[in-house]
Amino acid sequence: xxxxxxxxxxxxxxxxxxxxxxIVRATQHVPLCLRGSAHQESRKRLAGLIGARTGAxxxxxxxxxxxxxxxxxxxxxxxxxxxxxxxLVDALMTAMIDIDVKFEADSxxxxxxxxxxxxxxxxxxxxxxxxxxxxxxxQKPDLTEDEIGDRVALxxxxxxxxxxxxxxxxxxxxxxxxxxxETDLSYPPCTGVPYIxxxxxxxxxxxxxxxxxxxxxxxxxxxFESIEGKAAKQRFFGFGSHTCLGRKLALEIxxxxxxxxxENRIEVVVLAFTKRRDDVFDIPQTxxxxxxxxxxx
Length: 297
Hints:
- By secondary structure, the chain is of the alpha+beta class.
- It has helices spanning 5-16, 21-27, 36-73, 80-97, 119-139, 145-175, 181-184, 230-234, 247-264; strands spanning 76-79, 195-199, 204-206, 209-211, 216-220, 267-275, 284-292.
- A three-stranded antiparallel beta sheet has the order 1-7-6. Strands 2-5 form a two-stranded antiparallel ribbon. The chain has a two-stranded antiparallel sheet with strand order 3-4.
- The N and C termini lie far apart (50 Å).
Protein backbone atom coordinates (compact mmCIF):
# COMPACT_ATOMS: atom_id res chain seq x y z
CA UNK A 1 0.00 0.00 0.00
CA UNK A 2 1.10 3.65 -0.33
CA UNK A 3 3.31 4.97 2.45
CA UNK A 4 1.43 6.93 5.12
CA UNK A 5 3.28 10.16 4.38
CA UNK A 6 0.85 12.33 6.34
CA UNK A 7 1.45 10.28 9.49
CA UNK A 8 5.22 10.55 9.08
CA UNK A 9 5.13 14.33 8.78
CA UNK A 10 2.67 14.64 11.67
CA UNK A 11 4.69 12.39 13.98
CA UNK A 12 7.85 14.47 13.51
CA UNK A 13 5.93 17.72 13.87
CA UNK A 14 4.32 16.60 17.12
CA UNK A 15 7.62 15.39 18.51
CA UNK A 16 9.55 18.54 17.63
CA UNK A 17 6.77 21.11 17.88
CA UNK A 18 6.13 22.66 14.45
CA UNK A 19 3.18 23.02 12.08
CA UNK A 20 2.54 20.65 9.16
CA UNK A 21 -1.19 21.26 8.75
CA UNK A 22 -0.88 22.39 5.12
CA ILE A 23 1.28 19.37 4.27
CA VAL A 24 -1.24 16.98 5.83
CA ARG A 25 -4.13 18.68 4.02
CA ALA A 26 -2.29 18.37 0.69
CA THR A 27 -1.62 14.65 1.17
CA GLN A 28 -5.37 14.02 1.40
CA HIS A 29 -5.60 14.73 -2.33
CA VAL A 30 -2.51 12.86 -3.58
CA PRO A 31 -3.25 9.25 -4.60
CA LEU A 32 0.29 8.14 -3.74
CA CYS A 33 -0.47 9.09 -0.13
CA LEU A 34 -3.89 7.42 0.11
CA ARG A 35 -5.29 3.92 0.51
CA GLY A 36 -8.51 2.10 -0.30
CA SER A 37 -11.55 4.07 -1.43
CA ALA A 38 -9.83 7.41 -0.74
CA HIS A 39 -7.12 6.43 -3.22
CA GLN A 40 -9.67 5.47 -5.88
CA GLU A 41 -11.77 8.59 -5.39
CA SER A 42 -8.72 10.85 -5.59
CA ARG A 43 -7.53 9.24 -8.82
CA LYS A 44 -10.99 9.59 -10.32
CA ARG A 45 -11.17 13.30 -9.53
CA LEU A 46 -7.65 13.97 -10.83
CA ALA A 47 -8.33 12.01 -14.02
CA GLY A 48 -11.43 14.13 -14.58
CA LEU A 49 -9.50 17.37 -14.05
CA ILE A 50 -6.70 16.29 -16.38
CA GLY A 51 -9.21 15.22 -19.02
CA ALA A 52 -11.06 18.52 -18.80
CA ARG A 53 -7.84 20.54 -19.13
CA THR A 54 -6.03 18.46 -21.79
CA GLY A 55 -7.23 20.64 -24.66
CA ALA A 56 -6.05 23.81 -22.93
CA UNK A 57 -2.65 22.24 -22.21
CA UNK A 58 -2.24 21.25 -25.84
CA UNK A 59 -3.00 24.80 -26.92
CA UNK A 60 -0.41 26.20 -24.52
CA UNK A 61 2.21 23.69 -25.67
CA UNK A 62 1.54 24.50 -29.32
CA UNK A 63 2.01 28.21 -28.61
CA UNK A 64 4.73 28.17 -25.94
CA UNK A 65 7.00 25.32 -27.00
CA UNK A 66 8.22 26.84 -30.31
CA UNK A 67 9.02 30.09 -28.47
CA UNK A 68 11.04 28.32 -25.78
CA UNK A 69 12.67 25.95 -28.25
CA UNK A 70 14.56 28.87 -29.77
CA UNK A 71 16.77 28.67 -26.65
CA UNK A 72 17.91 25.22 -27.75
CA UNK A 73 18.05 26.01 -31.46
CA UNK A 74 20.04 29.26 -31.42
CA UNK A 75 23.87 29.14 -31.32
CA UNK A 76 25.42 30.31 -28.07
CA UNK A 77 25.67 29.44 -24.39
CA UNK A 78 22.45 28.52 -22.62
CA UNK A 79 21.20 27.65 -19.14
CA UNK A 80 18.80 24.82 -20.01
CA UNK A 81 16.91 24.69 -16.73
CA UNK A 82 16.31 28.43 -16.21
CA UNK A 83 15.70 29.37 -19.82
CA UNK A 84 13.79 26.30 -21.02
CA UNK A 85 12.72 23.63 -18.51
CA UNK A 86 11.43 25.78 -15.64
CA UNK A 87 9.36 28.19 -17.78
CA LEU A 88 7.95 25.31 -19.84
CA VAL A 89 6.85 23.36 -16.76
CA ASP A 90 5.35 26.50 -15.18
CA ALA A 91 3.36 27.08 -18.38
CA LEU A 92 2.20 23.46 -18.39
CA MET A 93 1.11 23.53 -14.75
CA THR A 94 -0.65 26.88 -15.24
CA ALA A 95 -2.64 25.40 -18.12
CA MET A 96 -3.30 22.14 -16.27
CA ILE A 97 -4.82 23.67 -13.15
CA ASP A 98 -6.16 26.84 -14.83
CA ILE A 99 -4.34 28.97 -12.25
CA ASP A 100 -1.33 31.18 -12.94
CA VAL A 101 1.56 29.54 -11.05
CA LYS A 102 5.32 29.87 -11.00
CA PHE A 103 7.56 27.70 -8.85
CA GLU A 104 11.06 28.62 -7.73
CA ALA A 105 13.90 26.29 -8.74
CA ASP A 106 14.22 25.09 -5.13
CA SER A 107 10.48 24.86 -4.47
CA UNK A 108 9.50 22.41 -1.74
CA UNK A 109 6.00 21.76 -3.11
CA UNK A 110 6.80 18.32 -4.56
CA UNK A 111 8.87 17.06 -1.65
CA UNK A 112 6.16 15.65 0.59
CA UNK A 113 7.48 12.18 -0.37
CA UNK A 114 10.93 12.85 1.10
CA UNK A 115 12.05 10.56 3.90
CA UNK A 116 15.07 12.61 4.94
CA UNK A 117 14.46 16.37 4.92
CA UNK A 118 14.80 18.22 8.20
CA UNK A 119 12.59 20.54 10.19
CA UNK A 120 13.50 23.79 8.44
CA UNK A 121 12.65 22.41 5.00
CA UNK A 122 9.41 20.87 6.26
CA UNK A 123 8.45 24.25 7.67
CA UNK A 124 9.17 25.86 4.32
CA UNK A 125 7.23 23.13 2.53
CA UNK A 126 4.26 23.69 4.83
CA UNK A 127 4.37 27.44 4.18
CA UNK A 128 4.61 26.97 0.39
CA UNK A 129 1.69 24.54 0.29
CA UNK A 130 -0.37 26.91 2.43
CA UNK A 131 0.46 29.84 0.16
CA UNK A 132 -0.41 27.77 -2.93
CA UNK A 133 -3.80 26.90 -1.45
CA UNK A 134 -4.46 30.59 -0.70
CA UNK A 135 -3.27 31.59 -4.18
CA UNK A 136 -5.67 29.17 -5.87
CA UNK A 137 -8.55 30.26 -3.64
CA UNK A 138 -7.89 33.93 -4.43
CA GLN A 139 -7.93 33.34 -8.21
CA LYS A 140 -10.95 31.03 -8.17
CA PRO A 141 -13.03 31.68 -5.04
CA ASP A 142 -15.89 29.44 -6.21
CA LEU A 143 -13.82 26.25 -6.11
CA THR A 144 -14.63 23.68 -3.43
CA GLU A 145 -11.96 22.49 -1.00
CA ASP A 146 -11.63 19.25 -3.00
CA GLU A 147 -11.20 21.19 -6.24
CA ILE A 148 -8.47 23.33 -4.68
CA GLY A 149 -6.81 20.29 -3.13
CA ASP A 150 -6.81 18.45 -6.46
CA ARG A 151 -5.03 21.36 -8.11
CA VAL A 152 -2.44 21.40 -5.34
CA ALA A 153 -2.02 17.64 -5.84
CA LEU A 154 -1.32 18.07 -9.55
CA UNK A 155 1.36 20.64 -8.73
CA UNK A 156 2.92 18.18 -6.28
CA UNK A 157 2.82 15.28 -8.72
CA UNK A 158 3.71 17.13 -11.91
CA UNK A 159 6.19 19.93 -11.22
CA UNK A 160 9.40 18.17 -10.22
CA UNK A 161 8.55 14.98 -12.14
CA UNK A 162 8.37 16.97 -15.39
CA UNK A 163 11.40 19.11 -14.54
CA UNK A 164 13.52 16.06 -13.89
CA UNK A 165 12.31 14.02 -16.85
CA UNK A 166 12.84 16.84 -19.34
CA UNK A 167 16.18 17.94 -17.85
CA UNK A 168 17.76 14.50 -17.64
CA UNK A 169 16.34 13.39 -20.99
CA UNK A 170 17.82 16.43 -22.72
CA UNK A 171 21.16 15.74 -21.05
CA UNK A 172 21.05 12.14 -22.31
CA UNK A 173 20.21 13.33 -25.81
CA UNK A 174 23.14 15.75 -25.83
CA UNK A 175 25.76 13.41 -24.35
CA UNK A 176 24.96 9.81 -25.32
CA UNK A 177 26.08 8.96 -28.88
CA UNK A 178 23.99 5.77 -28.79
CA UNK A 179 20.75 7.71 -28.37
CA UNK A 180 19.08 8.65 -31.64
CA UNK A 181 15.81 10.47 -32.09
CA GLU A 182 15.19 8.43 -35.23
CA THR A 183 14.49 5.36 -33.10
CA ASP A 184 13.77 6.80 -29.66
CA LEU A 185 11.26 9.55 -30.39
CA SER A 186 8.26 7.95 -28.65
CA TYR A 187 9.53 7.93 -25.05
CA PRO A 188 11.91 10.12 -23.06
CA PRO A 189 15.20 8.31 -22.39
CA CYS A 190 15.22 9.23 -18.69
CA THR A 191 12.76 9.63 -15.84
CA GLY A 192 12.80 12.30 -13.17
CA VAL A 193 11.09 9.84 -10.80
CA PRO A 194 13.77 7.24 -10.00
CA TYR A 195 11.59 5.15 -7.68
CA ILE A 196 8.27 4.83 -5.90
CA UNK A 197 7.87 3.64 -2.31
CA UNK A 198 5.31 1.25 -0.91
CA UNK A 199 4.65 -0.02 2.59
CA UNK A 200 4.31 -3.70 3.44
CA UNK A 201 0.96 -4.29 5.16
CA UNK A 202 1.99 -7.81 6.17
CA UNK A 203 5.12 -9.95 6.20
CA UNK A 204 6.17 -10.70 2.63
CA UNK A 205 9.08 -12.10 0.65
CA UNK A 206 10.02 -10.26 -2.57
CA UNK A 207 12.83 -11.91 -4.53
CA UNK A 208 15.60 -12.44 -1.95
CA UNK A 209 14.41 -9.76 0.46
CA UNK A 210 12.08 -10.25 3.40
CA UNK A 211 9.83 -7.38 4.55
CA UNK A 212 8.01 -7.04 7.84
CA UNK A 213 4.72 -5.21 8.31
CA UNK A 214 5.42 -1.47 8.11
CA UNK A 215 8.68 -1.82 6.16
CA UNK A 216 9.12 0.41 3.10
CA UNK A 217 9.64 -1.35 -0.21
CA UNK A 218 11.32 0.71 -2.91
CA UNK A 219 10.51 -0.09 -6.55
CA UNK A 220 13.17 1.42 -8.82
CA UNK A 221 11.81 2.89 -12.06
CA UNK A 222 15.20 4.25 -13.11
CA UNK A 223 16.35 0.76 -14.07
CA PHE A 224 14.08 0.87 -17.10
CA GLU A 225 16.22 3.65 -18.62
CA SER A 226 18.76 1.05 -19.74
CA ILE A 227 16.21 -1.42 -21.12
CA GLU A 228 15.18 -1.13 -24.74
CA GLY A 229 11.62 -1.39 -25.96
CA LYS A 230 8.29 0.36 -25.60
CA ALA A 231 7.04 -1.95 -22.84
CA ALA A 232 10.03 -1.16 -20.63
CA LYS A 233 9.74 2.59 -21.11
CA GLN A 234 6.06 2.44 -20.14
CA ARG A 235 7.21 1.33 -16.68
CA PHE A 236 8.46 4.90 -16.14
CA PHE A 237 4.82 5.74 -15.55
CA GLY A 238 4.01 2.91 -13.15
CA PHE A 239 1.24 0.39 -13.75
CA GLY A 240 -2.09 -0.80 -12.40
CA SER A 241 -3.67 1.36 -9.70
CA HIS A 242 -0.55 3.57 -9.60
CA THR A 243 -0.26 4.34 -13.32
CA CYS A 244 0.62 8.01 -13.89
CA LEU A 245 -2.60 9.82 -14.76
CA GLY A 246 -0.74 12.32 -16.93
CA ARG A 247 1.17 9.73 -18.99
CA LYS A 248 -0.58 10.36 -22.31
CA LEU A 249 -0.20 14.14 -22.09
CA ALA A 250 3.41 13.93 -20.91
CA LEU A 251 4.31 11.76 -23.87
CA GLU A 252 2.63 14.15 -26.30
CA ILE A 253 4.72 17.02 -24.93
CA UNK A 254 7.92 15.00 -25.13
CA UNK A 255 7.23 13.88 -28.69
CA UNK A 256 6.55 17.44 -29.86
CA UNK A 257 9.79 18.66 -28.30
CA UNK A 258 11.85 15.73 -29.58
CA UNK A 259 10.43 16.12 -33.09
CA UNK A 260 11.61 19.74 -33.25
CA UNK A 261 15.08 18.80 -32.05
CA UNK A 262 15.23 15.97 -34.58
CA GLU A 263 14.11 18.24 -37.40
CA ASN A 264 16.74 20.89 -36.63
CA ARG A 265 19.58 18.45 -35.79
CA ILE A 266 21.61 20.85 -33.69
CA GLU A 267 24.99 20.06 -32.22
CA VAL A 268 25.39 20.71 -28.50
CA VAL A 269 28.30 20.64 -26.06
CA VAL A 270 27.42 20.26 -22.37
CA LEU A 271 29.55 22.72 -20.38
CA ALA A 272 28.33 21.95 -16.86
CA PHE A 273 25.90 19.49 -15.33
CA THR A 274 25.19 18.71 -11.66
CA LYS A 275 22.32 16.98 -9.85
CA ARG A 276 20.13 18.71 -7.29
CA ARG A 277 20.41 17.32 -3.77
CA ASP A 278 17.10 15.51 -3.56
CA ASP A 279 16.18 12.09 -2.23
CA VAL A 280 12.97 11.82 -4.27
CA PHE A 281 13.46 13.28 -7.75
CA ASP A 282 16.32 13.35 -10.25
CA ILE A 283 16.56 17.00 -11.25
CA PRO A 284 19.52 18.90 -12.73
CA GLN A 285 20.82 21.65 -10.48
CA THR A 286 23.20 23.03 -13.13
CA UNK A 287 22.74 22.37 -16.84
CA UNK A 288 24.70 24.69 -19.12
CA UNK A 289 25.26 24.02 -22.81
CA UNK A 290 26.76 25.62 -25.89
CA UNK A 291 24.71 25.29 -29.05
CA UNK A 292 27.03 25.14 -32.05
CA UNK A 293 26.18 26.68 -35.37
CA UNK A 294 26.93 23.61 -37.47
CA UNK A 295 24.16 20.99 -37.75
CA UNK A 296 24.70 17.30 -37.23
CA UNK A 297 25.41 15.39 -40.39
